């Protein structure tokens, strides 16, 4: 059992049998959605959905709900996971990725057209799933997240190769690209758990955790090791994505400041060399430290809320799990 | 003034000043959406939205509403147009199209990544727009259409190059790919026009008109002329899309039945030659005749409904406009 599995085990133990039951129902619902929409989708999406993943977002939905009795929670958990998958499928087209989680991607199996359409279909099904809850507020939360995800991608594109990306701009991008769906998951949990008044504070918790998640992911891209990430170090550098480690390192090393990624960092060996140089500035430690601050803030913010001990502990474990994943 | 403009003029005249006012408000709202979502989207989407188009789907929303007093109609019209645009932006990425309506596409301006994300954002904004109506039924209608559009694309992909596509399968594909959003537009109009009971019959009207729209588009791809379509004849043949003219022609000309598109129809000259051969079988006339039957059925179906004379006439004009466009 690896660390991530151990961590999930601890969360499940803290969440009790009710949590396991809800997660199982979500898996069932995801499979139904994949199988229920025509033979064409069936093939592609079943592979994508079955490939699994951590189901971190559904987990947040359930843990942010005071009680698990409401069937709408499963619909919300299914919806956030479908939306997450839609973005993965589109990302794989854009990155021309052949494998994800050890399985062929929709792009690899069906090509660009099938993968783009599959992503669009998963997007639509996310909304359809949530409509079944009869909650306009829920659809509003999901569409805000969905817009934010797309804006985050656009911001990343607009920032590509640039030398003047500020830490603030980087954080804003992470908020859009990643944290928005973590936040939405928590809000939906609060909403359907009968505590709409906790939507803001729990949403804020999700935002912080999501932010740390993306920041640590970006550190890992520079630090490696490759066996862990399944991709060469500095993949972000190669496609021009300017992340916090590079931004901080540029402030410390004039040589990096003058480096124009485009045209010079064009192969994995060159990218690895730049990664080493970034690491030498201490920027990785600083970026990691900033991410951990967000996790600590997230956990602290829970203390002021009126949550049961079990619930708070489970949420703490998820926050820690994000860090653990990158330890 | 060309025929299409004259036709629109007639529809507007039949619809009265109220219709013009609603269409103007929709344009305003589309511009707000484009400008209101960050500089990144602003640039790309403003171009796409400003490029205009016929606004056929918003028109259907308004004409299917008994009264135009409800602000939710504009939200619905904006939503269907945003969804339509989202699919166009993604189509342009897949087809690597540089121009649409005489303007550079988002793909041409921003590349694959920006265009995919812009499409996703327009998708999201379509749902966000509809959420403002506080109607779950409306979100349900839009998500059904959105899923159908994506399924239609997947079906088209699955059918590519095949020799055994039946007319029934072809019609099912057109229903998904095109007619579903026409149908949704009509349903939303009925819903917000205060006549939810007309949602089925008016939805059926939209379905028929949308079906004819796609069928005539497919005829035009074979018949040309190129000056009219802005693309070489037989573009569908070149990318393996099997449409009704080819299906019917295969039943009449054994040579076409044995023709394997892939590998043989690889350049515009070859495609044009196959188009000529399809035309010789009379398949174009037959396909056109079938499309016109759907338009006639659509118009006939209105007679049984309790619509004002003006409204029925305006809807008739839209149905005729679809034919006119290809006359």
List keywords for this structure.
homodimer; mainly alpha; Farnesyl Diphosphate Synthase; 2 domains; two-stranded antiparallel sheet; 16 helices; 1% strand; globular
Textual characterization of the structure:
2 copies of one chain form a homodimer. Chain A has 327 residues and is mostly helical. Chain A has 2 domains: 11-134, Orthogonal Bundle (Farnesyl Diphosphate Synthase); 149-316, Farnesyl Diphosphate Synthase (Orthogonal Bundle), CATH 1.10.600.10. The first copy, chain A, has 16 helices and 2 strands. The two termini of chain A are 16 Å apart. At the A-B interface, helix 2, helix 4, helix 5 and helix 6 of A face helix 2, helix 4, helix 5 and helix 6 of B.
Fourth CATH level, the homologous superfamily of the largest domain in chain A: Farnesyl Diphosphate Synthase
pLDDT average of chain A, as an integer? 88
Number of helices of chain A: 16
How many structural domains are formed by the residues of chain A? 2
Numbering strands along the chain, what is their spatial order in the largest sheet of chain A?
1-2
Radius of gyration of chain A: 20 Å
Low-confidence stretches of chain A: none
**Fraction of residues in H or I helices of chain A:** over 70%
């Amino acid at each position: 059992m690896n660390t991530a599995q151990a961590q999930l085990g601890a969360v499940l133990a803290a969440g009790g049998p009710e949590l396991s039951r809800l997660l199982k129902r979500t898996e069932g619902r995801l499979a139904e959605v994949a199988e229920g929409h025509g033979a064409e989708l069936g093939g592609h999406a079943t592979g994508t959905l079955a490939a699994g993943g951590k189901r971190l977002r559904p987990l947040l939905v359930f843990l942010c709900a005071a009680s698990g009795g409401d069937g709408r929670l499963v619909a919300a958990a299914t919806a956030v996971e479908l939306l997450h998958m839609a973005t993965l499928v589109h990302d794989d087209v854009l990155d021309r990725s052949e494998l994800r989680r050890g399985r062929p991607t929709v792009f690899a199996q069906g090509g660009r057209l099938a993968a783009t359409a599959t992503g669009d279909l998963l997007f639509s099904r996310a909304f359809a799933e949530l409509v079944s809850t009869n909650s306009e507020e829920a659809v509003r939360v999901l569409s805000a997240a969905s817009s934010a995800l797309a804006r985050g991608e656009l911001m990343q594109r607009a920032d590509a190769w640039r030398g003047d990306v500020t830490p603030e701009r980087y954080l804003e991008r992470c908020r859009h690209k990643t944290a928005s769906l973590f936040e939405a998951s928590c809000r939906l949990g609060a909403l359907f758990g009968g505590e709409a008044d906790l939507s803001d504070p729990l949403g804020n918790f999700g935002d912080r955790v999501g932010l740390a998640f993306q920041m640590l992911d970006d550190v890992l891209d520079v630090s490696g090791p490759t066996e862990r990430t399944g991709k060469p170090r500095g993949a972000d550098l190669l496609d021009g994505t300017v992340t916090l480690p590079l931004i901080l390192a540029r402030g410390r090393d004039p040589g990096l400041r003058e480096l124009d990624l485009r045209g010079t960092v064009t192969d994995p060996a060159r990218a690895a060399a730049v990664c080493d140089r970034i690491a030498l500035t201490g920027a990785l430690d600083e970026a990691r430290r900033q991410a951990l601050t967000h996790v600590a803030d997230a956990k602290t913010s829970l203390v002021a809320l009126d949550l049961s001990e079990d619930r708070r502990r489970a949420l703490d474990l998820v926050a820690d799990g994000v860090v653990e994943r990158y330890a």
